[in-house]
Amino acid sequence: MDDVLGQLYANGAIDKAFERFFSLGLAGFVFVPLFGVLLIQPYHDLALVPVAVRCKSREEILFRYIAASLRRSAFFSFALCVSALPPLLMAGEIWQATISYTLLEFVELCGFFSVCALAFYLVSLLAKRAGLVAGFMIITIMGVWDFMSMNVAGGGLPYLGWSLALLQYPVSVYDAISSLSWFAFLACLMILGLSALIRRYDFVD
């Protein structure tokens, strides 16, 4: 593994070395499902009647969902980046570029996982009694979408998630802003959907 990473570093391909730890397959079948486990407790807590009673308004419930999404997205993204950083640093000597690239990837991954978390809560509330199952299904689809796009016969499916979070090195400002703008757009759609849903959601049912 170190020899392969060292060769990638020798070619200046920090992004390719990074992708060895964050491939589309790992993202869809490991990372995203693990992230879904972190979302279970907030969903249970915020969907309970006592929580709805304690909150002063339904907007406060929405804010708690958004806050839970951001906290868990930041935590999980940080954990992934930190876990990949030591072997990457040991494989090459361009540590300044590696750390800078990893920090940018942290921001991008936060955007991706925030969208996943908001989609999880939105679909879970829509499905009510089957909420957790539906929530896991939607983020699993989001996780494996790019993997399927890459492996589908004939191609034609656009990359919409994980692939956009993995930046090419050297990083283009346009690419970084474009992917973050896409995640921000999706997050806004999810927040609008949650806002409309929570205003009419029956916490007693």
What topology emerges from the helices and strands here?
Elements lengths: L1 H9 L3 H6 L4 H15 L1 H7 L2 H6 L3 H34 L3 H33 L3 H21 L10 H4 L7 H28 L5
What does this structure look like?
- The radius of gyration is 19 Å and the shape is elongated.
- Helix 6 (58-91) runs antiparallel to helix 7, helix 6 (58-91) runs antiparallel to helix 10 (173-200) and helix 7 packs parallel to helix 10 (173-200).
- It has one domain.
- It contains ten helices and no strands.
- The longest helix is centred in the middle third of the chain and has 34 residues, at 58-91.
- With 205 residues, it is an all-alpha fold.
- Mean pLDDT is 81; it is low at 1-11.
- 33% of the residues are buried.
What would a concise description of this structure say?
The protein has 205 residues and is mostly helical.
Order of helices and strands: HHHHHHHHHH
Structural class: mainly alpha
List low-confidence stretches. 1-11
The biggest beta sheet reads: none
Mean pLDDT: 81
List how many beta strands DSSP finds. 0
Q: How widely separated are the two ends?
A: 53 Å
Helix content: over 70%
What is the radius of gyration?
A: 19 Å
Number of helices: 10
Q: What's the number of domains? A: 1
Note the beta-strand portion. Answer: under 5%
Basic shape: elongated
Question: What keyword list fits this structure?
Answer:
205 residues, 0% strand, disordered N terminus, mainly alpha, 10 helices
